[in-house]
Write a structure and sequence with these properties.
Elements (H helix, E strand, L loop, with lengths): L4 E9 L5 H11 L3 E13 L5 E6 L2 H12 L5 E4 L5 H14 L4 E3 L16 H9 L5 E2 L3 H8 L7 H13 L5 E6 L6 E7 L4 E7 L9 H14 L4 H17 L15 H5 L5 E4 L1
Parallel strand pairs: 1-2, 1-4, 4-5, 5-6
Antiparallel strand pairs: 2-3, 7-8, 8-9, 9-10
Helix pairs in contact: 1-7, 2-3, 3-4, 5-6, 7-8
The structure holds adenosine-5'-diphosphate and pyridoxal-5'-phosphate.
The site of adenosine-5'-diphosphate has 20 residues, from strand 7, strand 8, helix 7 and helix 8.
């Protein structure tokens, strides 16, 4: 049996819910063979309210992993937490040389909650090296505003304007995640392919146990693209996958509640409605 090969270039979340851990669990659930290029290791301090430590790997080590993985003939690539401009440039150049279209950019800038984990200046590098290579980019509201150089969108109309700006920077498709943040009765994301704005909606789960949702969503899109789905289908199915994962999120300890990456195959996923807006 030949499996489609998916690569994540991202950080390690030691707590297991986000980062490459989320990506590998998702790749596995969706029947692809996952490979990794680690950029940073994130640990949490149990003696200091679970505050985050971020340890960056040397650029040579990052490059060597990317080269190893791409040499195997990868079908789709995802990027997640890329700690420095140097790593963003390296990832972008390797993806360009690789030359295949299935590139999912999750422009991770902050972890959910408080901790700033990315250095300032990385936004410009993402715009230069990653957006022009993206089949799809998946910012949350804050990240979308940063990429567009506009204020953080707070309404669907504002999301549309921001999506158009990000598309003009070279990303072929844009999904802005309204998620829990957007003042809206559903969990709503805006999908823009350069022609049509589609609002994707599912029931909003009332939970704090959503750690890793963004990574899981982007990883599911990546696996779906590797498996041959078109971009719209890949995004809609990924939304159902992550919605099920959030609905079954659970408490790891008093600080963090990860999503359950394998929920959809066990319990099914919700219906996603799509409306042109
Ligand atoms: N409470 C929720 N109920 C259902 N879906 C949600 C909820 N929160 C987020 N989502 C969905 O999960 C996906 C990831 O979004 P989000 O968690 O906001 O990303 P990020 O982790 O990057 O901030 C999106 O499709 C979003 O709409
Ligand atoms: C390595 C890593 N990548 C990405 C994220 C972003 O996680 P989320 O999917 O919850 O936005 C985190 C947050 O802790 C992380 O530690």
């Amino acid at each position: 049996m030949t499996l489609k090969k998916t690569l994540t270039i991202a950080g390690s979340d030691t707590s297991g819910g986000a980062g490459i851990q989320a990506d590998l669990k998702t790749f596995q659930e969706l029947g692809t063979y996952g490979m990794t290029a680690l950029t940073v290791v994130v640990t949490m301090d149990p003696d200091n309210n679970w505050s985050h430590n971020v340890y960056s790997l040397p650029i040579d080590v990052v490059n060597s992993q990317i080269k190893t993985a791409l040499s195997t003939g990868i079908d789709a690539v995802k990027t997640g937490m890329l700690s420095t401009e140097e790593v963003i440039q390296a990832a972008g150049e390797a993806i360009k040389a690789w030359g295949s279209p299935h590139v999912v950019i999750d422009p991770v800038m902050v972890c959910k909650g408080e901790d700033e984990v990315l250095n300032p200046g990385t936004v410009d590098a993402m715009i230069e090296y990653l957006l022009p290579r993206a089949e799809v980019v998946t910012p949350n509201l804050f990240e979308a505003g940063q990429l567009a150089g506009m204020k953080t969108p707070g309404t669907v109309e504002q999301m549309k304007a921001v999506a158009e700006k990000i598309h003009s920077l070279g990303a072929r498709n844009v999904v802005i995640k309204g998620g829990k943040q957007l003042q809206h009765d559903k969990a709503a994301d805006l999908f823009y392919d350069g022609k049509t704005h589609l609002l994707l909606e599912s029931e909003k789960t009332d939970t704090h146990y959503n750690h890793g949702a963004g990574c899981t969503f982007a990883a599911a899109i990546t696996a779906n693209l590797a498996n041959g789905k078109d971009i719209k289908e890949a995004v809609i199915e990924a939304k159902a996958f992550v919605a099920a994962a959030i609905a079954n999120g659970w408490k790891l300890n008093e600080y963090v509640g990860p999503v359950m990456h394998g929920a959809k195959s066990r319990f099914g996923g919700p219906e996603i409605t799509t409306t042109e807006v």
